[in-house]
Amino acid sequence: MATRTSVNSYLRKEIYINFPPLEGKVALITGGASGIGKAATRLFINHGAKVCIADIRDDLANQLLESLGSGTNARFIHCDVSKEDDIRKAVDFTAETFGTIDIMVNNAGITGNTVPDIREVDLHELQKVFEINVDGVFLGMKHAARVMIHVARAR
C-alpha cells in the first residue's frame, strides 16, 4: 500500500518528467504572484516558457521577478481581473512583449469570508467573489481568444 509521501513523490516526478514541452511558449497567468499562480509561473519558466504575471499584488510580483533573476523570460503587469480594461491591457501587453499568447491560465481567485449562516452573507462580498472568480475567467478567455484564435488560424 502506497503512503501519502510516496504518492506525492511519485506525482512530483511525473509532473517534471512528463510535463508538456513549454520551450518557447508564451503564458499569461492571472494571480501569478502568489500561491498556485506563483508555482505555475516558476514551473513554466523552469520548462522554458515566457510568462507574463498579471496580478493586483505589485509587491509580490516584483519579489517573484527578482527571485527568478535577471534575464528570465518573465514580465509583470498590474491587473484586476474584475476590470475588463485591465484584462485587455494584460493580454495586449503580453502579446506585444512576447509576440503571442499560447497559454492562458485564469488563476486569480478569492474565497471571501467564511460565513456559517447564509442569513449573514453580505451580498456585496458575494458579488465581488463572482466578479473575480467568474467574470474574471470569462474576461480572460474573451481577450486571450483575440490573440490565440488568430495565431491558431495562421498555423
State the separation between the terminal residues, measured CA to CA: 48 Å
Question: Taking Cα atoms only, what radius of gyration do you get, to the nearest Å?
Answer: 17 Å
Low-confidence stretches: none
Order of helices and strands: HEHEHEHEH
CATH architecture verdict: 3-Layer(aba) Sandwich
Tally of alpha and pi helices: 5
Structural class: alpha/beta
Outline type: globular
Number of domains: 1
Strand order of the largest sheet: 3-2-1-4
Beta-strand residue fraction? 5-15%
Amount of helix: 40-55%
Query: Biggest β-sheet: count, sense, barrel?
Result: 4 strands, parallel
GO molecular function, one term: xanthoxin dehydrogenase (NAD+) activity
GO cellular component, one term: cytosol
InterPro entries: NAD(P)-bd_dom_sf, SDR_fam
Family: Belongs to the short-chain dehydrogenases/reductases (SDR) family.
Topology of this protein?
Elements: H1 4-18, E1 26-30, H2 35-46, E2 50-55, H3 58-68, E3 74-78, H4 84-98, E4 103-106, H5 123-154
Parallel strand pairs: 1-2, 1-4, 2-3
Report on this model:
Belongs to the short-chain dehydrogenases/reductases (SDR) family. InterPro entries: NAD(P)-bd_dom_sf, SDR_fam. Pfam families: adh_short. By secondary structure, the protein is of the alpha/beta class. Helix 4 packs parallel to helix 5. It is globular.
What key attributes describe this structure?
4 strands; alpha/beta; four-stranded parallel β-sheet; Rossmann fold; 155 residues; xanthoxin dehydrogenase (NAD+) activity
